[in-house]
Specification:
The complex is a heterodimer of chains A (189) and B (437). Chain A has 189 residues and is of the alpha/beta class. Chain A contains six helices and seven strands; from the N terminus they run E-H-H-E-H-E-H-E-E-E-E-H-H. Chain A has a seven-stranded mixed sheet. Chain B has helices spanning 6-14, 40-51, 76-92, 109-115, 147-156, 181-192, 207-210, 214-222, 238-248, 294-297, 309-312, 315-325, 341-349, 357-364, 417-426, and strands at residues 25-29, 32-35, 63-65, 96-97, 124-127, 141-144, 158-162, 166-172, 201-205, 231-233, 269-274, 281-283, 291-293, 304-308, 333-337, 351-352, 355-356, 367-368, 392-395, 411-414. In chain B, helix 2 (40-51) packs across helix 5, helix 6 (181-192) packs parallel to helix 8 (214-222) and helix 12 (315-325) crosses helix 14. The longest helix of chain B has 17 residues, at 76-92. Chain B is globular and about 55 Å long. Classes of the chains: A alpha/beta (189), B alpha/beta (437). The complex binds iron/sulfur cluster. The site of iron/sulfur cluster has 12 residues of chain B, from helix 11.
């Protein structure tokens, strides 16, 4: 597991649901097929109403002009109840496919959190403080998973993150399969 | 031994433990794994990647596959996905597959599961769909999981779970004729919020719940996820037993165990409702907890009405809608989508005032679609009832986030079948009390 994650922030608000992360019409792609996996990156966050994408100003497209699949951002900042709605694993897959490595939110909807951890797609982090009104889209951030710190390199601000706790070993192992092998639940395939 | 809630007891039993406490992580044995056309192909991909191309599922009797989401479409990818399921069922020789275009085709998985006898008290059911929690109506622990988890279960029959603390909602009284279970659950979600039950179990109890028929109980549990709940659950009574024993004949009459919460079990939250005092409830755009009483927003202009889905597309829902629509014509486009083929048949056999439900709907000017999820989640652009323009729709479905039923700027109001039917007649949000006594 990467212990330091650094990159640009893309900021969203509260209750970002899975239909906004990846609208249902794109669920016909099969994430198990690499060429189709890429398509999830292309359509990631395309369901977010334009004025709510890329806060605080909004109307900031998630994808840059140069790459239709990979976004220029590494970390998503969200508010409350990130990832609510359906159980589609396509949601964390879409974000990961677009190049997102970590999400920082106040808290998550349960299935999104589980899918992120068990699939090993991205690191879902939680903060005590509400950051989606403080951090600006485009700020350069650094997350240190050993010290549980989030550093805004653009403004110099620092916040502490909640420790990952009991899911840390699963994230470290890279998902539930690797973890189950590690603890002897599964024999290596 | 310390007192436990029924959800805790089921998890303890399946973890091979005497007792479990909320917050603990446990590995549980799975009784049934359900998947459909949207998440099935990904799940199968995960399963094969980790267990091998020729691996067999842990127990072929326990995997149920129900294509239901993108069914009557020309979308090539959607149809390819059903083919992936067909191929897998063939190579694994799975007995429970309800394929499109065959006699066995059912429609929406959460209604198909109980109809075909796959829901039993005391069991653990996982499904690759968030509304798997619907089956809690049968006194079991049922919840939605992702493809990776489902792929893991396919190979091992096990999964880790964090034991949720339980919230209890007690309903007293008999529902007045203008209210339905949908009003109750929208009231609950409005009260606790879309994140009010995050990481928690929601147990529904009280004489008001036991007075509901089994389909109405399913509506209650169905929308537990809209409050963020891990599962919804209702204790077993004679109504449950009768339904389960009857339907169990279709899938081998498996024995089951009933669990009840101990009298001194710990609930993290409790709220009591007198259902006789409640009014018809609506969730306004764009969130299921954006609650209003119909009386507060009566007269709001609408473009469309939609009656369908695992929440509001059961026979009870159509019976209610027919009672309102009988002898009236709709003023706005009105779409009727039975959840399953069995419900669709019921539209012909069930009558209100001597007329079949189908005749009542057609005479009122509504359009009737084939059994499936249809426009509940938007889907490909040729989906029946899909909101392809920024219009306003009142719907018996369960979610109204931006874009859920199609267009990102469409406005979706969630309500009971009674309220939706009444609104279809007048073209504005309408109080069902003006049509039913
Ligand atoms: S009817 Fe709607 S909520 Fe129910 S399973 Fe289908 S898409 Fe999901």
């Amino acid at each position: 597991m990467q212990t330091v994650i650094e990159g640009k922030a893309y900021v969203l608000g509260d209750n970002i649901d899975t239909d906004q992360i990846i609208p249902a019409e794109y669920l016909t792609y099969n994430p198990a097929i690499p060429a189709e996996y890429k398509m999830f990156g292309k359509f990631a966050l395309c369901g977010v109403p334009p004025d709510q994408g890329g806060l605080p100003k909004g109307h900031v497209p998630f994808h840059g002009p140069d790459d239709e699949f990979i976004a220029p951002y590494t970390i998503i900042i969200g508010g409350k109840n990130f990832g609510c709605g359906s159980s589609r694993e396509h949601a964390p897959i879409a974000l990961a496919s677009a190049g997102i490595v970590a999400v920082v939110a106040e808290f998550y909807a349960r299935i999104f959190y589980r899918n992120s951890v068990n699939g090993g797609y991205l690191v879902p982090l939680e903060t005590e403080t509400r950051l989606c009104e403080t951090i600006c889209t485009g700020d350069q951030l650094r997350i240190d998973l050993t010290t549980h710190e989030l550093h805004n390199l653009t403004t110099g601000d620092k916040w502490s993150l909640r420790p990952l706790g009991e899911v840390a070993p699963i994230i470290e192992a890279g998902g539930v399969f690797n973890y189950a092998e590690k603890v002897g639940m599964l024999k290596k395939a | 031994m310390s007192a436990m809630t029924m959800s805790e007891k089921i998890l303890a039993k399946h973890a091979g433990r005497e007792a479990v406490n909320p917050g603990e992580n446990v590995w549980v044995d799975v009784d049934v794994l359900m998947t459909h056309d949207v998440c099935g192909p990904g799940t199968i991909g995960v399963f094969k990647k980790h267990f091998g191309q020729n691996a067999k599922v842990w127990d072929r009797e326990k995997v149920v596959i129900i294509p239901d989401h993108y069914i009557f479409t020309h979308d090539v990818m959607a149809n390819r996905n059903v083919d992936v399921l067909r191929q897998f069922v063939k190579e694994q020789d799975l007995p429970y597959f309800y394929d499109v275009g065959t006699e066995k085709y059912k429609g929406v998985c959460h209604i198909a599961l109980p109809e075909e006898g796959h829901t039993r008290p005391g069991e653990i059911l996982f499904g690759t769909d968030s509304h798997t929690c619907t089956a809690g109506a049968f006194g079991e622990f049922a919840t939605g999981i992702g493809n990776t988890d489902a792929g893991f279960v396919m190979g091992t029959g096990k999964l880790w779970l964090k034991v949720p603390p339980t919230m209890r909602f007690v309903f007293h009284g008999n529902l007045p004729p203008y209210l339905m279970a949908k009003d109750l659950i929208l009231a609950v979600i409005g009260d606790i919020g879309v994140d009010g039950a995050t990481y928690r179990a929601m147990e529904f109890d009280g004489d008001g719940v036991f007075a509901l028929n089994i389909e109405e109980r399913m509506t209650l549990c169905n929308m537990a996820i809209e409050a963020g709940g891990k599962n919804g659950i209702i204790p077993v009574d004679d109504v449950t037993r009768k339904y389960v024993n009857d339907r169990g004949q279709r899938s081998g009459n498996k024995p089951y165990t009933e669990y009840r919460s101990d009298a001194d079990a710990q609930f993290i939250f409790e709220k009591v409702y007198d259902v006789t005092k409640l009014e018809p409830v609506v969730a306004k755009p764009h969130s299921p907890d954006n609650k209003a009483f119909v009386s507060e927003i009566q007269g709001t202009k609408l473009d469309r009405a939609y009656i369908g889905s695992c929440t509001g597309g059961k026979l009870t829902d159509f019976r209610a809608a027919a009672k309102v629509l009988q002898g009236h014509t709709v003023k706005i486009d009105t779409f009727i989508v039975p959840a399953t083929t069995e419900v669709a048949k019921g539209l012909d056999t069930e009558t209100v005032g001597g007329k079949s439900l189908r005749d009542i709907f057609l005479a009122a000017g509504a359009q009737i679609g084939d059994a499936s999820c249809a426009a509940c989640l938007g889907g490909p652009s040729d989906t029946f009832g899909r909101l392809n323009a920024p219009i306003s729709c009142i719907s018996t479905t369960n979610r109204n986030f931006p874009g859920r039923m199609g267009h990102k700027q469409a406005q979706v109001f969630l309500a009971s079948p009674l309220t939706v039917a009444a609104s279809a007649i007048t073209g504005v949000i309408e109080d069902p009390r003006n049509f039913v006594a």
